[in-house]
Target: NAD(P)/FAD-dependent oxidoreductase
Amino acid sequence: MARIVIIGAGMAGLAAAARLGTLGHRVTVCEAAPTYGGMVGRYERDGFAFDTGPGVLNLPAVYRDLALKSGREPLEQLVDLVPVEPESRHLFPDGTDLVLPNASRGGVAKALDTAFGAGSGDRWGEVTNRGRAVWEATRRPLMEEPLPEGRLADPYPRPPRRGPAKWLPRGSYTLGDVARRELGDHPGLTALLTEYATRFGLGPDAPAGATVLAYMEQSFGVWYVRGGIRALADAVFRRCEQRGAEFRFGTRVAEVLTAGGRACGVLTADGERIDADLVLSSSPDPGLGWEKPGGGLGRVRVLLALRGARPEGTVHRTVVHAGGADWERDALLHEESVPEGPTVQVLRPDDPSLVPDADHEAVTLTVTCGVREGDDLDAYAGHLLDHLAKSGLDLRERVLWREVRSTAWVPVPSLAGGTLNPPNGTGVPGLYRIGGGAHPGGGLARVGMSASITAGLIGPA
Model:
């Protein structure tokens, strides 16, 4: 049995504690905040409740595996997990209204043909087929196994070049290149492709392999946890307690201690020493063994308490696309501060547990953008509501109150051909990295995999 200290009780820390406790280790989790969950937070006021982090779940197989490996129960016995159907609605500046089915690539192709004209579905399908090739080539090294040494080439299978271009040197091939060369710069298809990447903090200069994000979502589906994604954090926390993990909230770790070149415990901000055989850190703090990967994109979230019932037939997730796609791409490339008329994700779950009664609705707006100190985010929330109204989604007269939250950093997924997040092992024996800033990167599924990979490296007691 090893004594293990985990720094941070976010989803990576919770998943690691559940797995390592099941393997027979003695686990202590130190969390600076007063509760667990990290970015998977919850805000409650006047009978309304909101997720302050992710609002939907991709690749639930990661947490199904955690549930089975740590307790031999299906995830569906721990939370009420339901598919989001339809998967999304997309409102474009030219008035196009596109509704995409969940986990149905054939249905997506049909919807695209209807919205954008015959052949659009086939063109999109060719790109997502290449995304499938990326998934098959990178699923194990970039999702399920320790990060291999060296740079991984982007396995995106580029289409053959024709004409004089075939004689030019083959440089890097980006998501923007896919939009231009394979989607013909079609404004709707381009906006759809880049939105998947933008949600993960990636710009149009991301490797073409970022098409895997669209492939994964449209092939494996999008899911919702009733009660909000915070209910998933609650379930994993309960599993940690069942496996004997000790939680120390309000305990900020100031330093990872070493002896003989090996991690031997942590020192808290209060000066307390906690001895350990192994330390896992989900905190991108140089004093704790590693620094946050580069990237300056953040998120702005606006939580809206609305009067009036959720209208019949309302889609769970609506994406209002930017009025100036070229301008937004430039803003993302240069990490400019809160842009005007951006792409906005609107979450409107049909979940009675999130509202005081049936005559109210809880809505969350999310924008991925640069966030700078001094930005007037409440004024920006008003701008976003005006922007939605111009797109035909006017919520302004129903707003009882709004709460604005922001984060200055979006953990991005590791992508072959791009910047890879640091590996789970470190140069210090006994010290490991987990969480969104480590391999395999950001997102609920990937932070869960970082815990699984690291638990595999450590092994049973």
Q: What stands out?
A: The chain has three domains: 3-39+63-80+228-293+413-458, 103-161+179-219, 296-407. The radius of gyration is 22 Å.
